[in-house]
Amino acid sequence: MVKYAYLGFNDFSDYFNTFINTLLRSNKTYEYFVDWEKVKNNVRKFKHQIFLLNSLREATDKDTIKKEFVDLLVKYPEVLQVIPLLIAERVKNGKIDILDPDVEDFVQYNFKKRRINKEEAKKYVYFSERVGILDLLMEVRDLYDYLLGVEVGIDTNARKNRSGDIFERLVQITLEKYLPTRIKIVPQDPHFSLYRTIGKTAREQAKRHDFVLYSNDAPKFILEVNFYNVTGSKPISIAESYITLQREARKHDVNFVWITDGPGWISMKEPLMRAMKDIDFVLNYRMIPRFCSSLDKILNSNKYI
Questions:
Q1: Rounded CA gap, 25 and 261, in Å?
Q2: Which of 15, 79, 237, 293 might form a disulfide with 4, Cβ 3.0–4.6 angstroms?
Q3: Spans of all domains in the chain
Q4: What is the DSSP string of 164-222?
Q5: For residue range 186-214, what is the model confidence (pLDDT) as tens digits?
Q6: Taking the mean position of all CA atoms in its chain, how far away is CA 181?
Q7: Strand 255-261 vs strand 281-283: parallel, antiparallel, or unpaired?
Q8: Does domain 4-26+179-301 have CATH number 3.40.1350?
Q9: What is the value of pTM for the model shown?
């Protein structure tokens, strides 16, 4: 059962109601929307190729662009790498397979940097025409600015992954603010992990805890952190796996702490309550100061330490 008394609650009902009522409705920080450093780096590394492509904008008609594009690819084959980026396509192994209705089969385009002849170059100009890149070259003023916009759009797809990272950073900042100075916090600690004992595969055994808290150079708490905006099977399976982790923590004389938050839990109260019956410490973000202020009491009286 969750040790609610250490967190300053009179009973489980008081604790659970506070947990639900203080869930964060979102974890969107200023960094959530766009990873600007990544966006800029993704474009900056093709600055030379973009400059070469920009030179095609001086052509007055599409036929001239096509001719000059062929010459450009023959002379500067590194420009090939940028073509997929113009249509917001991340290519695997540098290749794109197109189902061409004219030949009723797949046509493969290889955008890796390499020397190509004039006939091969015409193939890539044809691709560029069919996907609209030639029209783009006649309309945009600067491909560098255009590609920044494309990368921003692609980066929005990474928000789901970034959401978890952002919540981890929020938790770390709050822990560092409220933890006693004698407690050391180690993110992704390579030296201590219970996954090595419960993992069935090499990959599972190589997992690391989000945080390990040390006192007197000994691990005292392992922390797992996650945030759920929506309901689903993943939060439920995670809760069940953490019950196993809790049992393993007791065998190794450490405390297990699960810090989880998000509006998704409002519709998943039952699996959350089941986990709370088996895990010693389940906190949401706003409960972290309560936990930090109780550390000495927990360490002094916990039978597992």
A1: 9
A2: 15
A3: 4-26+179-301, 36-157
A4: HHHHHHHHHHHHHHHS-TTEEEEET-SS--THHHH-SSHHHHT---SEEEEETTEEEEE
A5: 999 999 999 998 888 888 888 999 999 99
A6: 30
A7: parallel
A8: yes
A9: 0.79
